[in-house]
Every structure is written in structure tokens, then in C-alpha cells.
Specification:
The complex is a heterodimer. By secondary structure, chain A is α+β, with helices and mostly antiparallel strands. Chain A has seven helices and 26 strands. In chain B, the strands form three sheets. In chain B, strands 2-3-1-4 form a four-stranded antiparallel sheet. Chain B has a two-stranded antiparallel sheet with strand order 5-8. In chain B, a hairpin with a 6-residue loop joins β6 and β7. The two termini of chain B are 23 Å apart. Classes of the chains: A alpha+beta, B alpha+beta.
Chain lengths: 388, 135
């Protein structure tokens, strides 16, 4: 029995759709079987709340009088990219403050905007006949700028590597602090709740898919950068290493800092925790096969981050069930594990999205276009022009 | 006679030296080790209470610093700001005494003060700055 997204939306509108989160569906399928679950359950909500460096926001400040063609822009002394039209800029999450270094940066500017805090805007220019002003210093809030939208080139990684450190010193990485002599292991995935691990072949997620983004409705705008779906997979369909990614877009003015949070990884830099929820329509039995997969059947690889190379040695494959138990064994040593992404906050997002759908305020969408599935990522080789 | 609670950090090169013995013998300080750990950084950490006259304590601490021991006041606390905390789970993997853990049912961070030795490994590792070492 197959269902269409249109049929599911009709059920949402009439208040008859059955929505479960991606944790609840596991037990439901075990109890009711696949055939009954397809008949009864219409939507499964998935979510993640993790650090996603490839994030940022476009802002249009409006024109001053006399006007300025902003060439260099700083927001709270954090440089923003202004090499586009006169009063447009892009503030990237990982950009550091010129005054406070790693204490403050782009992600903090974005969070302060969402929290309606005043932001100091400074810009310089060379002046033109149509834009005579050469510098400006003023204050903005999210309310008094024109458009402000989050546009994240790469979010919602479908699986991610786990990290450890075999060296004799602590190292500070984007996977957090890694203690010496394999002193800990960190990982970053919501596992069984993670959006793209519940739809491993992206059958229902594509360009234009409506999603929960940082507390409001957002959209999938494109495949994410470093999209790499051509990976080794478990028989249940899930990739065993980082695979697909999504580019996301949404209105910053409607977001909440409960689901958009600036963060600093000590000794590494600044990033943005992004809350994403994606509804998976239960269109057929095949979807249930993917949705019923639990943490014990989802795997990732543990890499040694003390090796400062693109390819790092592996300490083997491990399930999210084991990672989430708090300890794993590497070389006969009991090693504590830590998650960078918050499962608790992800579950809250999945449940919020579930409520929106149950109330009828969020309808599902068919992708406008599927995402590419043949893509492979390239590496950057250092070449002379004649070696290309 | 006064007492102070301190966290002493012994770097690897002096971990094997009889420093506490000298504190008692040379400075006549009363010395109570409340907790001690060798952390994953191969650093010795000790939560102590020392008692003596103000002068004895000052001289004893000066001796410790000259030996390369870093001293931190432990009279205060580790504070977890539950509003800021996002319960990600980074800090439990760094906590050597398992004073920090994520509750498997509620998925929220739990902090057991009784297990904490105030080493501070968690504090600068919290991505959202929710853990503060109050000195």
C-alpha cells in the first residue's frame, strides 16, 4: 500500500494524521509489524541539534542618507562579507571578532540578532557618485533591517566520524577536546533520530522540502557542499561514514535561540548549533524499513585526530548504541564517549515538529527536484597550472 | 590557625616528588587530602585542606609554586548554568570522576557535586560556556 504526500496532507488538514517521532516509530514497528505501520502511521519526525560550521546569514541593512556602497562590513567588530550589492552582507558563523578573538564571532552575532540585541554596524567604502558616503557607524536590530535569512551551505550531515587522540598530549579540535592516549571519544550525530539516517537514499527529501529550521519553517535549498552519497552502506541502507548533506534556508527574523546557538570549541574556534527537524512521509513499506532502524544498527568509524593529515588511521567501526552507552572499548581500554550534538534538544525539535503537524500548521511538501545521488567529492591537490 | 581548601595540580615532571611530605615537615602545616587523581593529561590533581598560621600557609604555598605546582582556590564551586546548557554530552567524556553524565531517560545533564574534584577539565570545554569554575 502506497500513500502520496497529497493524501497525507489531506489527513493533516482533517486532523486525522498519525505522527510519531523517529524514536517512537522503532517500538511501534516492533509491536505492529511493517504492513500495519504503513496503514496507520503517516509521518515520522526526525531532528538534529548539532554544531554546523557551514552556516551563516544574509542581511540587507537598508540605505543610509547619503547612501554608502558598503565595501567592508563589521557587525560587533566581526567581519562580514560585503562583496555583493551595496547594503547586502553575509555573516559567516566561524568568523572571529577582530577584538575578542575566539570569545566572540559570527555565530554569536547571528544569535544576538535572533535575540533582538542591538548590533553595532560599521562599514567603509571608496565612495562613488551614486554612493558618496565613505564610512558609517550605527546600530541595528533584527527588526529594523530588511531581509535577514539564514543560508547554510552544509548542514544535517548524514552520519559523521567519531574522534579520538592517540598522541601523548590533549588536542583541541572541531570534535572538541580530545584527551591523550585515547582518553575519550567524541561523536556528533543524533543517530536514530537523525534526519538523513531515516531516509538514507533521500527518497522523500529534496530541493524545496519544507523543514523545521531553528524554531520556524525553513526549506532545503540545494544539496549541501561536500555532498558525498556514494559511500559504503550497511544492508539497512545507511552509510557507514559521512555521506549526503543539505543546504538550508530560513527566515532569521522568526528563529529562536533555543534552536540556534553560538558555540566555541576551545582552541579551535566558533561554530553554530543549528536545530533542524525533517518530516518523513510514510509513503510505503520501504520507508518503514529505513525508519525502524535503531542506534544499535547505525554505525560510524572512529578516527585518530592526532594524525594531522586528510586521511586518518581508523580504530574501527562502532554503533551509535555503543557510543551512547557512555563507554566503549578500544584496544582493551575502557574509553568514555561524549556527544557534540544534543540528543535531548533534537528530541524536543522532533516533538515540536510533531505538534505543528498535529495542529495542522505544518504541511508536508514534495521535493521540487531530487538531490543528486551520483556525486563524489574531490580533494584539493597542490598543482601548477600545467599539471591540471 | 586558619584553614584553606585548595586544588593542587602537579605537572608530570614532579608527580613523583615527595612534595606533600615537605609541606608537613618544613612548614609544619596540617594537611588533609580530600581527593586525589592522576588525570588523563598525566597531571596529578589533589583537593586538599591545609591548616596552620597565615604565615605558615603563605610560605608553604610559595614553596609549592616554586616547585611548579599550580594552586587554585577550591573554596568555591563548579557551576552548571542549566539555562545555557544544551545537554550535548561533551563534558561527561572529559570528567574523570564521572561527576557529569547525561541521564539516559531524560537526556539532560546531571552533575553530582559529591563526585566532583574541581579539576576544571569540563569548564573550558563547554561549547556554550554553561560550566563555570567559580573561584
Amino acid at each position: 500500500m502506497a500513500k502520496t504526500v497529497e493524501e497525507i496532507n489531506e489527513k493533516i488538514k482533517s486532523g486525522k494524521a498519525l505522527v510519531l517521532n523517529a524514536e517512537e516509530i522503532i517500538g511501534y514497528v516492533a509491536e505492529n509489524g511493517i504492513k500495519n505501520t504503513v496503514k496507520k502511521v503517516d509521518i515520522v519526525t526526525t531532528a538534529t541539534f548539532g554544531p554546523m560550521c557551514s552556516s551563516g546569514a544574509f542581511i540587507n541593512f537598508g540605505h543610509s542618507d547619503p547612501p554608502i556602497k558598503m565595501q567592508k562590513v563589521w557587525l560587533n567588530d566581526v567581519p562580514a562579507y560585503a562583496g555583493i550589492a551595496a547594503v547586502d552582507a553575509y555573516i559567516g558563523a566561524t568568523e572571529l571578532s577582530e577584538l575578542e578573538d575566539m570569545q566572540y564571532g559570527g555565530a554569536y552575532v547571528i544569535q544576538d540578532l535572533v535575540d533582538s540585541k542591538p548590533i553595532k554596524l560599521r562599514a567603509t567604502s571608496y565612495g562613488t557618485d551614486c554612493y558618496p558616503r565613505r564610512e558609517i557607524e550605527t546600530y541595528i536590530t533584527i527588526e529594523n533591517v530588511n531581509q535577514a535569512y539564514l543560508f547554510n551551505p552544509r548542514n544535517v550531515y548524514q552520519n559523521y566520524a567519531a574522534a579520538t587522540n592517540s598522541s601523548s598530549k590533549s588536542i583541541y579540535t572541531y570534535m572538541g577536546k580530545l584527551l591523550p592516549n585515547i582518553g575519550n571519544v567524541t561523536y556528533s550525530s543524533a543517530g536514530q533520530l537523525s534526519p538523513l539516517l531515516n531516509d538514507p537514499y533521500l527518497r522523500t527529501v529534496g530541493v524545496g522540502t519544507r523543514i523545521f529550521l531553528c524554531g520556524t519553517q525553513g526549506y532545503v535549498s540545494w544539496q549541501g557542499t561536500q555532498n558525498n552519497p556514494d559511500r559504503e552502506r550497511h544492508p539497512n541502507g545507511t552509510p557507514l561514514s559521512p555521506a549526503s548533506t543539505l543546504a538550508l534556508i530560513g527566515d532569521l527574523k522568526k528563529m529562536s535561540s533555543r534552536y540556534l546557538r553560538a558555540a566555541t570549541f576551545f582552541g579551535y574556534g566558533i561554530t553554530l548549533y543549528v536545530g533542524v527537524g525533517i518530516p518523513i512521509p510514510v509513503i510505503d513499506e520501504e520507508m518503514i524499513e529505513y525508519l525502524k532502524v535503531s542506534d544499535n544498527e547505525l554505525f560510524t568509524e572512529i578516527y585518530d585526530y592526532s594524525v594531522q593529515r586528510r586521511n586518518k588511521p581508523s580504530y574501527g567501526r562502532i554503533s551509535y548504541g555503543q557510543l551512547k552507552s557512555g563507554f566503549i572499548t578500544i584496544k582493551n581500554k575502557k574509553v568514555p564517549t561524549g556527544s557534540l550534538s544534543s540528543y535531548g534538544r533534537a528530541l524536543e525539535i522532533a516533538n515540536t515538529l510533531k505538534e505543528w503537524i498535529q495542529k495542522g500548521s505544518f504541511l508536508l511538501s514534495n521535493p521540487v527536484s531530487p538531490l543528486p545521488f551520483e556525486e563524489k567529492i574531490n580533494v584539493l591537490n597542490i598543482l601548477g597550472r600545467d599539471e591540471l | 590557625m586558619i584553614s584553606r581548601r585548595l586544588v593542587l595540580a602537579f605537572p608530570e615532571k614532579i608527580v613523583t616528588r615527595p612534595i606533600t611530605y615537605r609541606l608537613i615537615k618544613d612548614f609544619d602545616l596540617q594537611f588533609n587530602i580530600l581527593r586525589a587523581e592522576i588525570t588523563a593529561d598525566i597531571e596529578g590533581k589533589m583537593l586538599i585542606e591545609i591548616s596552620g598560621t597565615k604565615k605558615q600557609i603563605e610560605e608553604g604555598l610559595k614553596y609549592l609554586e616554586n616547585e611548579g605546582v599550580s594552586i587554585q582556590d577550591a573554596s568555591k564551586d563548579i557551576i552548571v548554568d542549566t539555562e545555557k546548557c544544551i545537554s550535548c554530552g561533551v563534558c561527561p567524556s572529559l570528567c574523570i570522576t564521572q561527576a557529569l553524565e547525561i541521564n539516559p531517560v531524560t537526556h539532560r545533564l546531571l552533575f553530582d557535586k559529591n563526585k566532583c574534584i574541581l579539576c576544571g577539565l569540563c569548564a573550558n570545554s563547554c561549547p556554550v560556556n554553561a560550566i563555570k569554575l567559580k573561584i
